[in-house]
Structure formats: structure tokens, C-alpha cells
């Protein structure tokens, strides 16, 4: 599986946008970029995924670099409830498993 | 709609005792099923996954085993628990044939004493 690199931790002020980076320089043409987040003492929850084009949903936006070697998860207005570990994962669409890395621990400062 | 049930929520077991954690999915057929473990302060480690009844793939050698006796039932077992088996165990499912979105249970926090 292609590898992703994320910062171990980030901090952001409440009600400000947050940009969470992910590097995936060895991404293949069939790899989708998935983002999950894990709130304390809970299982991960799906946030967003994309292949080539930028994606938006009610939770976040995903900006994918033109060469696809990096991507950024954007939380437009952080709240205290967004404090979590955010995982960036690569997986081909027709794949049977998701392999998580260590993710980025996001702290929101009131 | 689909739901995933995982129990128990917490478990304290002595070293050397057996383990059985159960996970069931409702509202879908032939899901992919997964067991993950998260040690304290660590990332998620994929332990087992299954694409069908009786089909189990193991990701890491360990003291645990998994079984899928029914289409929507996934069981994680151990004959003799070790202290190192302590952790947060998570069951998940995804639609067959693809992993666009995986859905996780609430987890079981296992403490081996």
C-alpha cells in the first residue's frame, strides 16, 4: 500500500479554518484518498474521499494537488467538537481493506 | 439503514483467560468485515478482514484469531490472553467489493490484568 505522511499534531483556534496536510508521493493512479477522524474513545468516522478533483461535503473539503502527491483536508470553521485524530489513507477503489497510519492529532483552542 | 453492533463495551480479563468479542452488522448483505486494535496512545492496527463467510485474512501474527460463522457476524477470539492484548478493539464493515467508506462500531476496551 502507498504510504502517507502527516504531521503528528496541529493546533487551531476555534471558529477559524483548519488545513490538515497529507503527503503521498508514491500514490498510484488508482488510489483514492480517504480521510477519517477519530474522536476520543470512539471508532473512526468517515469524513471525505476523492480521486483527482477537489471534493466538498457537509463536514469538510478535500483539496487534491494537481500531481496528486499531496492533499489537504479543510475544516472551514473549527469547533471544539472537531478535536480528534485525523487519518489520511490511500486505497484503490476495488480494495478490501483500509490501513490506518498514526494520523494528526488536532487540538482546538477555545 | 445499516447498523453495526459490537459488544461488550468494556472488558477486564485475567492473563491466560479466553476471549470472545462479537460484532454483527444489520441492513446489508455480504459486507466486508474488519477487526482493528488500538493500543493506548497508538494508531489503528488492522488485525483481520473478511470478504465472505469462512474467509479470513490475517494481517499480523498474534495471539488472536477471527471467525465469520454467518454472513454478518464476525468474532474475535483468543484461547489465552496476554497482557499485551490489552487495547481498544474495533469492528468495522464496508460494502462488498470496495472500500469507499468503512463504518466502525463503538469499540471494546479490553484490559488484561
Summarize the SSE layout with pairings.
The complex is a heterodimer of chains A (110) and B (113).
Chain A: E1 9-13, E2 18-23, E3 31-38, E4 45-50, E5 55-56, E6 61-64, E7 70-75, E8 84-92, E9 104-109
Chain B: E1 3-7, E2 10-13, E3 19-26, E4 32-38, E5 44-52, E6 55-58, E7 65-70, E8 73-78, E9 87-94, E10 102-104, E11 108-112
Parallel strand pairs in B: 2-11
Antiparallel strand pairs in B: 1-3, 3-8, 4-5, 4-9, 5-6, 7-8, 9-10, 9-11
Model regions low in confidence, pLDDT < 50 over at least 5 residues of chain A: none
So what's the overall shape of chain A?
Answer: globular
- Hey, roughly how much beta strand do the residues of chain B contain? over 45%
Along the chain, the helix and strand elements of chain A come as EEEEEEEEE
Structural class of chain B: mainly beta
How would you characterize the largest beta sheet of chain B? 7 strands, mixed
Helical coverage of chain B, percent range: under 10%
Going across the biggest sheet of chain A, name each strand in turn.
Answer: 1-9-8-3-4
Radius of gyration of chain B: 13 Å
Biggest sheet details of chain A: 5 strands, mixed
Number of strands of chain B: 11
Distance between the termini of chain B: 39 Å
Quaternary organization? heterodimer
Low-confidence stretches of chain B: none
Helix and strand run of chain B: EEEEEEEEEEE
Question: In angstroms, what separates the terminal alpha carbons of chain A?
Answer: 38 Å
Number of strands of chain A: 9
Walk me through this protein's architecture.
The complex is a heterodimer of chains A (110) and B (113). Chain A is mainly β and 110 residues long. Helices cover 0% and strands 47% of the residues of chain A. Chain A is globular, with a radius of gyration of 13 Å. With 113 residues, chain B is mostly beta strands. Chain B contains no helices and eleven strands. In chain B, strands 2, 4, 5, 6, 9, 10 and 11 form a seven-stranded mixed sheet that branches. Chain B is globular and about 40 Å long.
